[in-house]
Amino acid sequence: MLEPRDGLPEVVVDQATLRATIDAFAAADGPVAVDAERASGYRYGHRAYLIQLRRAGAGTALIDPIALPRLAELGEVLADAEWVLHAASQDLACLDEVGMRPTRLFDTELAGRLLGLPRVGLGALVDSVLGYTLEKGHSAADWSTRPLPEDWLRYAALDVELLIELRDVLEQQLRAADKLDWAHEEFGAVLAAPQNEPRADPWRRTSGLHRVRDRRRLAVVRQLWEARDVLAQQRDLSPGRVLPDAAIIEAALTMPTSAEAMAAMPVYRGRSQRRELSRWFGAVAEARAMPDTQLPPQTAPYDGPPPPRAWAARQPDAAARLTAARARVAKIADELELPVENLLTPDTLRRAAWAPPEPVTAETVAEAFRSRGAREWQIALTAAAVAEAFNHPV
After folding, report:
1. Which of 72, 174, 190, 382 has its CA 20 to 30 A from that of 18?
2. Name one GO molecular function term (predicted).
């Protein structure tokens, strides 16, 4: 499929056209296909730079949320409809930022996972389920570009062109496999998940952090990461385009004692890095002068069990429980043609194996799983088997 069936619509960039779009989608009925394009890797944050909608009776709309940043009225018009998204958790946060939030959801990627399909990307699903091939060449484009090229807009329109048809076939397959109720629980969990929740210690996601092995050098990583984040936000650039992670790690490992020494490092010889050298060296100097009491801990705070590879030496009974329970859960997942992580998250199983409820019964294991956010369908399929594995870990 190379062209939208109804032709490529004009991008909605003004209030009058937005008003007409809202009226058209309000007058239509049925599910609404929704997608959003971001500029990850180019711009700061994860805001939407294009929003695509399609509904029977209204056709396709391409909306510029930079020109029209307040779309709450459109969201209200569509609030009672089922929204069809692919990999919804990736888009819900940026849609929420502009005032669009669904109350009902169908996630085609998640449906594909529950059906045990081998490839669940949108292009692969459309191909295997509907028999159409979509051109997917612009997924990593800089969608903050203005004006957006026509071939990019065509790609974006095609992303919602077949979503509702795909949803209908996947729903039929889920019903035939007795998995539709599971899917509805999963969709509800996606909707209930908090959006735009800040991460704890986001600097610990710096690529290459495993090479930094003492707290003083970790402080360098943290101070440089925070200095970069401030500048990236000011410039509305992806942090990696302001200062690569590799430059942060090299500074932490080298610990330069002067701006001149830092400027001599290969990763800081570029024009843009030398322009901000006082900022980068200032962050290193702050970390060098920091009292020991203010240094970050070697590892991130974590309330869970240690890595399973350490269990055999520290808690052999827990290791035996985990091994037996993993085998049981994997067997159930295989019989149901499910990815094992969609049947029960590894973290949920690890925590229960490390600190099992007392006494271990199907009911107490079920409650332990429920407290960790497991859905009722997952609990019904796994709690009894895991309890048996915990009690008889052979």
Report:
1. 190
2. nucleotide binding
**pLDDT digit string, tens, across residues 284-312:** 999 999 999 999 999 888 888 999 999 99
For residue 301 the two structure tokens come to 């705070």
Find where tokens 């986001």 sit: 202
Q: Which residue has the tokens 């001599």?
A: 264
Four-way CATH pick for 202-294: 1.10.645.10, 1.10.150.80, 3.40.50.300, 3.40.50.1000 = 1.10.150.80
Residue 359: cis peptide before it, omega within 30 degrees of 0: yes
Q: Interior CA angle at 377 toward 379 and 112, to 5°?
A: 125
Determine the 3-state secondary structure of 290 from DSSP.
Answer: coil
Cβ atoms of 355 and 305 within 8 Å: the answer is yes
Q: Domain 308-391 in CATH: superfamily?
A: HRDC domain (1.10.150.80)
Q: Three-state SS for 45?
A: coil
| CATH number for the domain whose boundaries are 11-192 | 3.30.420.10
**pLDDT, tens digit, 9 for 90 and up, residues 54-109:** 999 999 999 999 999 999 999 999 999 999 999 999 999 999 999 999 999 999 99
